[in-house]
Amino acid sequence: MKLYAFTGACSLGPHIALHELGLEHELELLKPKQGDLQSAEHLARNPLGMVPVLEFEPGKYLTECGAILQFLADRKPESGLAPAPTDFERYRLQEWLSFVATELHKSFYPLFFGSQILKEDQAARQQMVEFYASRLEKRWQVVSDRLGDREWLLESGYSVADIYLYVVLSWWLFLKRSLETWPNLASFVERMRARPAVAAAHRAEG
Fold it and tell me: Is the pTM of this model over 0.70?
């Protein structure tokens, strides 16, 4: 398998999963500033010009972080990274993957790319950024309440949902935002950082 990614993107999630599962893979780090995402080759893999893209067989591609995480976990059911299809926890996993993708992941766009929006009105742009930051804070509270004193999102234990959550929490910290209000989320990040697979993925991405 081959994972197309770039450092700092949500493709870190599938990359961590590949290491957690011990699946043989090749990593190709694209360089957005050099136009790699808009190259004809990459647009043939993903017409949106985004990552992650997983080439799971020669010439066959899968996109979208949640779908790739589920696909990888199912390659090794014995890993427990995704509950069995007959287990109700499977639906909890889908619930979390959907929540992270739609309520958390996509809310970061204005925070990362605010400088490209409302270019001529700095005050309005900052207002927009703070609106989305406040929106995320409300969702961190939901995650914190549901996580409670557990180590992982699912009652059954560590899963690919935790990997995806870690990625978006790391973005929050990268933007110099605080998790002080949610100490269980701060502890979650530390548990994730202590995992060998997480450290290995970070090292590989530089």
Answer: yes
Cα 175 from Cα 183, distance rounded (Å): 18
Mean of the pLDDT values across residues 31-55? 97
**pLDDT attached to residue 120:** 72
Query: Whats the size of the chain, residue-wise?
Result: 206
Taking residue 196's Cβ as centre, other Cβ atoms within 10 Å add up to: 9
> What domains lie within the chain, and their CATH numbers?
2-78+201-205 (3.40.30.10), 83-195 (1.20.1050.10)
Helices (H), 77-182: 89-99, 109-113, 122-147, 160-174
Q: What is the CA radius of gyration of the chain?
A: 17
Cβ atoms 158, 80 nearer than 8 A: yes
Task: Please give the Cα distance from 81 to 16 (Å, whole number).
Answer: 12
Rounded to 5 degrees, φ, ψ at 143 are: -60, -45
